[in-house]
Amino acid sequence: MNPLKTLVILLLSASSLMAQRNFSGTVETDPEKERATFKMAPGFEANLFAADPLLAKPIQMSWDIKGRLWVACSETYPQIKPGDVAHDKILVIEDTNG
């Protein structure tokens, strides 16, 4: 897959992972409903390959030279409350079936 297409898919997927407010002010959490609102340029498509609960509050993403996606997630971002336990994690997500 073209790296630019992959980046676009990643960014769009990440935005669909987070609850978004629609025009009526309600929170939309269904990724398929969110994806239906995307306006894609000809030749591009958006596919969701990771979502909640796997990716809870992703705060950083990066690709390695093997094409794997590394994601830093922090359920307590942006600030942990006193007494809470941090559940931060680094995930490595890999497309194993093309």
Outline the structure in words.
The structure is a single chain. With 98 residues, this protein is an alpha+beta fold. Helix content is 21%, strand content 20%. It contains two helices and five strands. It has helices spanning 3-17, 31-36; strands at residues 20-21, 27-28, 58-63, 69-73, 89-93. Strand 3 (58-63) and strand 4 (69-73) form a beta hairpin.
What class would the helix/strand composition place it in?
alpha+beta
Major sheet size, sense and barrel closure: 3 strands, antiparallel
Rounded mean pLDDT score: 76
**Which strand order does the major sheet show?**
3-4-5
Q: Approximately how much beta-strand content do the residues carry?
A: 15-25%
**Roughly how many Å apart are the termini?**
9 Å
Question: Helicity, in percent?
Answer: 10-25%
**Using DSSP, what is the number of strands?**
5
Shape: extended
Number of helices: 2
- Rg measurement, Å: 15 Å
